[in-house]
Write a structure and sequence with these properties.
By secondary structure, the chain is α/β, with parallel strands linked by helices. The protein has 2 domains: 3-33, no CATH class; 68-170, Rhodanese-like domain (Oxidized Rhodanese, domain 1, 3-Layer(aba) Sandwich), CATH 3.40.250.10. It has 7 helices and 9 strands. It has a 5-stranded parallel β-sheet, sandwiched between helices. β1 (19-24) and β2 form a beta hairpin. α2 (35-51) packs across α3. It is globular.
């Protein structure tokens, strides 16, 4: 989508009071106007998945085309994290992580993942997540991690899905970490 086209769509959403905008120099920074907007979008996507077979075909096209990308459900993730068997990484851009993220997740944007592999433990499962079931960032992270010898999984949930289920989320930046993954 072109920048002009995206800007036009964002202005329509702003006029509908679904997003808010603030100017930073030449840039416009948009955010959801209310957590209820995320709830609405989540319900809309669930309804679409339930009613439209084409959506399932699209998911298979992007995520099932022979890729060795394994998913993990939220209950399985919670069990693994509580047992100390898994590390959760948020592969979205840092500014999205700062806005909200799954509690305890590390911020490692996909573009930085290759250079930051040393921060990840090799003796634990790595679970990557991004913006939800149609976001390819987590799948790309899992592929890269698998190619580098990590046991990696993809969580389909977004932060909004997590929050909607009453699961813990946090805001703000993560503490800096040492190469062993320990907080500095």
């Amino acid at each position: 989508m072109s920048v002009a086209n995206a800007s036009q769509h964002l202005r329509i959403l702003e006029n509908a009071r679904l997003v808010e905008v603030r100017k930073e120099g030449r840039f416009a920074v948009y955010r959801l106007a209310d957590p209820l907007v995320a709830d609405f979008l989540r319900a809309y996507h669930l309804l679409g998945e339930d009613r439209l077979a084409e959506i399932q075909r699209l998911r298979e096209r992007f995520f099932g085309g022979g890729q060795d990308v394994y998913g993990v459900d939220r209950e399985g993730l919670l069990r693994r994290v509580q047992a100390g068997e898994a590390v959760v990484i948020d592969v979205r851009p840092s500014n999205e992580y700062d806005t909200a993220h799954i509690a305890g997740a590390m911020s490692i944007p996909l573009q930085q993942l290759e250079e930051r592999l040393v921060e990840l433990p090799r003796d634990k499962n790595i679970v990557a997540y991004c913006r939800g079931p149609y976001c390819v960032l987590a799948s790309e992270a899992v592929e890269l991690l698998g190619a580098r010898g990590f046991q990696a999984f993809r969580l389909e949930d977004s932060v909004h899905d997590w929050r909607a289920r009453g699961l813990p989320i946090e805001t703000g930046r993560q503490p800096s970490a040492s190469p062993t993954g320990e907080s500095a």
